[in-house]
Amino acid sequence: DAGVTQSPTHLIKTRGQQVTLRCSPISGHKSVSWYQQVLGQGPQFIFQYYEKEERGRGNFPDRFSARQFPNYSSELNVNALLLGDSALYLCASSLSVSFSGDTEAFFGQGTRLTVV
Amino acid sequence: AQSVSQHNHHVILSEAASLELGCNYSYGGTVNLFWYVQYPGQHLQLLLKYFSGDPLVKGIKGFEAEFIKSKFSFNLRKPSVQWSDTAEYFCAVKRNQGGKLIFGQGTELSVKP
Fold first, then answer.
1. Cβ(A90)–Cβ(A112) under 8 Å?
2. CA A23 → CA A33, A49, A57, A59, A102, distances in Å?
3. What is the pLDDT of residue B7?
4. What is the mean pLDDT of residues A78-83?
């Protein structure tokens, strides 16, 4: 079975540009979450979606937005890119959002975004 | 502030040495606890998890962790490390239904052959 897949793997953008990152969850998983991992730090939560609805939002500016499609894939959009947005963006999928064992999160390889 | 703290930023061990990585969190109430590992060039993988029951949890590759509720701790242990355990290790906490994972800053483990 395919794991969580993210595209592209690497991306270089200029300050002020917009970027769209994509994520396909594991088959059967209905929840997708996005995390930002800056070098030397742990991943920080950005968004969680379940059944196409936003279920959680981290402390990120409105330049960050996301959506989930009927096939449970997801996109993360970042507008007006800043140098500080350079990071590894991780997508994680899980079966559901209940507080139990079936909420284990499986991570993709990530998209390395560099803003110059 | 509510947080997850990992005690060591970088740990260097020789093969066969014992490992203990500390993790403390500052949330009250019921939590789910996780240890993830990130091998060089690979994605985050789950090592082990605690949801309820026996506070001593066994994971993959000989790792285990003990949840001590009174100390708000979830330390990771391995009796004898191998060179292949070289990786970055992240402790994470989830506080409620559908909740986000809150990660510690990570501990880089280097094992010398």
1. no
2. 10, 12, 17, 21, 20
3. 86
4. 98
